Amino acid sequence: MTSTIRIQAEGFEIAAEAAALTTGRADIGAVIAFTGLCRDEGGRLSALELEHYPGMAEAELARIAAQAEERWPLMGLTIIHRFGKIAPGEEIVLVLTASAHRRAAFEAAEFLMDYLKTHAPFWKREHLKDGTVGAWVEAKSGDDLAAERWA
Amino acid sequence: MKLVYFAWVRERVGRTDEDLDLPDGIATVADLVRWLKGRGEEYAYAFENEAIVRAAIDHVHVKPDAPVLGAREIAFFPPMTGG
């Protein structure tokens, strides 16, 4: 299976990443793309800053991807997560899953995002419109519940 | 042993990483946290709610009862908020 995992400061092109999964293949029947974007939280934020644990972030995403590969008949998988300062409207994360049929691709993409949010070592901090540095974003219990349903 | 800290745990401790010689009797991550809390106010503040702070040994998530023997790098950080 084609598996791509990247952690990078720069943005990404969804169409190019999807093409990289499917080009030259005729067996893939479904590609699901999830893109997570930076919100401005009602005009409050100038940016989100993403800190990560280099080394572990890559390792943990690889472990999560391996679990998805074991559970669903995937033909391709891409995870890209950005770090650094990200402006509202810009993308933070991309998950692509490819399979012969849609159900596996949908389910695997949801699983990947649920696990990524609760297990991958990334932390968000708010930067406010008035130029000050805001609070660290708190983890949501709903995210833990979302991840637990796959156990 | 190398310790690394992230996000508000890093800010409270006041450093990104450090190399420490652990005294005898520290068998688990929980033992290590207890020892760190006795080292100064910054550690006591970072670990004031021990149940919240997460740990990883050599890039793998671990629970407080995980043994520290043989660990190269132990990380402490808040619950994750990526994605």
From TrEMBL, chain A:
Q: In which pathway does it act?
A: Cofactor biosynthesis; molybdopterin biosynthesis
Cite the Pfam families for this sequence.
MoaE (PF02391)
Supply one GO molecular-function term: molybdopterin synthase activity
| GO BP field | Mo-molybdopterin cofactor biosynthetic process
Q: What is its EC number?
A: 2.8.1.12
Identify the InterPro entries for this entry: MoaE_sf, Mopterin_biosynth_MoaE
Q: What class of enzyme is it?
A: transferase
Keywords of this entry: Molybdenum cofactor biosynthesis
Instruction: Note whether Protein biosynthesis occurs among the keywords.
Output: no
Top-level taxon of the source organism: Bacteria
Which family does the record assign? Belongs to the MoaE family.
Report the protein's function. Converts molybdopterin precursor Z into molybdopterin. This requires the incorporation of two sulfur atoms into precursor Z to generate a dithiolene group. The sulfur is provided by MoaD.
- Name this protein carries in UniProt: Molybdopterin synthase catalytic subunit
Task: Tell me the organism.
Answer: Microvirga alba
Automatic annotation (TrEMBL), chain B:
What InterPro entries does UniProt report for this protein, alphabetically? Beta-grasp_dom_sf (IPR012675), Mopterin_synth/thiamin_S_b (IPR016155), ThiS/MoaD-like (IPR003749)
Q: Tell me which domain of life the UniProt entry assigns to the organism this sequence originates from.
A: Bacteria
In Pfam terms, one family for this protein is ThiS
NCBIfam families on file: moaD
This one is known as Molybdopterin converting factor subunit 1
Q: Which organism is it from?
A: Microvirga alba
Q: Which gene encodes it?
A: moaD
